[in-house]
Specification:
Strands 1-2 form a two-stranded antiparallel sheet. It is built from 7 helices and 2 strands, in the order ααββααααα. By secondary structure, the protein is mainly α.
């Protein structure tokens, strides 16, 4: 079960690797609201970095409450701001590194901890990762792919 989640999470690293050939201009162009591809990747990376700490606590059998961040908007804005201060291709490499670190930590979690209900939480680690990370990854990948298809079509015309 952990292996399935790990594989699903690892797919993002391959997706990000496929963005490397694109120019900085393409990566910085706004595509969703006021966010660019760079912003979306930075946003995902922020959640990864934050959750690595939670996984460390789970591995150490510390008490953890699996829940959405108390101020999602502020957290997202801070993640995007952080990413805008990094060159786009450096950010892609850092996001790959952070996701690999998250997967490495996840693989250190016991199967028991993976499927148990966490204290004061509606989630198991498995359901939390499926909803908050894997589903979230797919959502943003689809946004990016739709944008890149329009870029490709516009370049062919």
């Amino acid at each position: 079960m952990i292996t399935d989640a790990s594989n699903d999470l690892e797919r993002l690293t391959f997706f990000i690797s496929n963005l490397i050939p694109y120019s900085d201009d393409v990566l910085r162009k706004q595509i969703v609201g006021k966010w660019s591809i760079q912003d979306i990747i930075s946003h995902i990376m922020g959640w990864d970095k934050n959750f690595i700490t939670t996984l460390d606590r789970i591995i150490n059998n510390e008490e953890v409450k699996l829940e959405e961040h108390h101020d999602v908007q502020a957290f997202n804005e801070a993640s995007v701001t952080f990413g805008r201060n990094i060159e786009p291709h450096d950010l892609l490499q850092e996001a790959i590194s952070q996701r690999r670190q998250l997967v490495l930590k996840l693989n250190m979690v016991s199967e028991t901890a993976f499927i148990r209900q966490f204290h004061n939480s509606a989630y198991t680690l498995e359901t939390f990762l499926r909803e908050m990370f894997i589903g979230h990854d797919k959502h943003h990948q689809e946004q990016i792919l739709r944008h890149l298809q329009t870029v490709t079509l516009n370049n062919q015309q």
